[in-house]
Amino acid sequence: MARKLSIMDSGWLMMETRETPMHVGGLALFGVPEDAPSDYMESMYRYLVDVDGICRPFNQKIQSHLPLRMDAAWVEDQAFDIDYHVRHSALPRPGRVRELLALVSRLHAQRLDPSRPLWECYLIEGLEGNRFALYTKMHHSMVDGMAGMHLMQSRMASSADERIPAPWSGAWDADRPSRSPTQKVKASVRQGLSNVSKGTGQLVDLLRQPRESNVKTIYRAPKTQLNRRVTGARRFAAQSWSLPRIKAAGKRHNGTVNDIFLAMCGGALRRYLLSQDCLPEEALVAQVPVALRSADQAGEGGNAITTVQVSLGTHLDSPLERLAAIQDSMSSVKERLGDMQKAEIDVYTLLTNVPLSLGQITGLSGRVSPMFNLVISNVPGPKHSLYLNGTEMLATYPVSLVLHGYALNITVVSYKDSLEFGVIGCRDTLPQIQRFLDYFEESLAELEA
User: Fold this and answer.
1) Mean predicted confidence (pLDDT) in 35-63
2) Cα 55–291–183 angle (5° rounding)?
3) What's the whole-model pTM score?
4) 51, 138, 379, 436 — which has fewest CB within 10 A?
5) What range(s) does the O-acyltransferase WSD1 C-terminal domain occupy (predicted)?
6) Which residues pair with 119 in a beta bridge?
7) How far apart are CA 308 and CA 291, in angstroms?
């Protein structure tokens, strides 16, 4: 039975071009057991493809007949081909992380086939240190970044001895409790108008804030090198940081892990733009996604997020003043969201995201003033080890997307005692993106000094 896409989910399909593929992904690293047989990687591949059927949302493809996919709906792919979606490859020697990130950069730049279910998975062997990797990408209309990470992690075991089906196995549908058809409840016109009024009022109130204030909304960002048109080429960089170390910095400055993470981003962006001789006098503004559902709802598919705008204090030379500006900006965001009902947040989210979609569809993005400077996400992850078919996951890095006018994305996911950074950008618009890894470290160190 067809399931119509929401307005937000359809928007990701409408915005997609060759230069801006609209999928998100994840790169996970695993260690090969010391006593592994010679055919270990082949057996791992067989585990991923020899499945008993395909579960939702992995078996769903897009059906559409109208221009711009205005009638897009999810339907089951009756000719699903698992060998197309799960692929086995190897790194060239010496198999360094450098080669792995170069491969992921190329794979992430390639669009998904719109005639098939919108996801792919690559089993990559030959990584130095007796390791292998799993790179998975899913279209943003299928899942938002947070839900995608939670979905994949929820389909992994919590011990080496536990054996569970592959993430897309049809066995997962068998374990899912049956649901009665959705009951559509007609909300009163009065209540609907009230939500629209309040959601609109929140946006208008933010737009009235002084431009130099730490309280930010859309169209309060300076135009920078980050806010140009992009090509289809991508550059991906990734690294792990100690979570206890970041927590200690937060405790020292009466801040949260997210405060320190944003301060690391603000410091890194200031350093990068100074190195390019293009640091603006105004503070950069980050668009920060906020999840509106719990981790156990990740398998429902679609997008359930809102976005808020946060000052990164990049105009401030002092790291402590920069951190204070970020904390002030974030606290105002939390207070505002806390005063809003879910329906009001939905209206506010729609009002602040429609201009983004229209900018991409019409080609104005990257040519006019930006709504914000970049997207920065912090995705909570598991605090314990996860295992894939008996093999421990050593690290997991998020791989997000970039848009015209927004050539850089920084996303982190927490895993055990680490904060895993994933930086993705247009390699033609932003040179030497890998330098951000050094700049993150320098920005954290100055908060510790």
Assistant:
1) 96
2) 60
3) 0.88
4) 51
5) 302-447
6) 138
7) 11
Cis check for the bond before 244: say yes or no (omega within 30 of 0).
Answer: no
Structure tokens at 112: 């998904």
Encode 327-346: b = buried (16+ Cβ within 10 Å), e = exposed. bebbebbeebbeebeebbbb
Taking the C-alpha atoms of residue 414 and residue 420, their distance in angstroms, rounded to an integer, is 6
For residue 289, the model assigns a pLDDT of 85
Residues acting as catalytic residues: 140
Domain ranges of the chain: 3-175, 189-384+393-448
- Give domain 3-175's CATH architecture: 2-Layer Sandwich (3.30)
- Reported as a single tens digit per residue, the pLDDT across 400-444 is 999 999 999 999 999 999 999 999 999 999 999 999 999 999 999
Determine the Cα–Cα distance for residues 44 and 27; give it in Å rounded to an integer.
16
Q: What is the radius of gyration, based on Cα positions, of the chain?
A: 22
State the residue for tokens 């030379």.
317
Is there a contact between 402 and 226 (Cβ–Cβ < 8 Å)? Answer: no
E-assigned strand segments in 370-443: 374-379, 387-388, 391-399, 408-415, 418-426
Question: How big, in percent rounded to 5, are the helix, strand and coil portions of the chain?
Answer: 35, 25, 40
Q: How crowded is the C-beta side of 186, counted as CA atoms within 13 Å? A: 2
Helical residues (DSSP H) of 144-242, grouped into ranges: 145-154, 171-175, 189-207
Q: Which CATH class is domain 189-384+393-448?
A: alpha beta
What burial letters (b/e) apply to 270-285, b meaning 16+ CB within 10 Å? bbbbeeeeebeebbbb
Q: Which residues contact 96 (CB under 8 A, 6 or more apart)?
A: 128
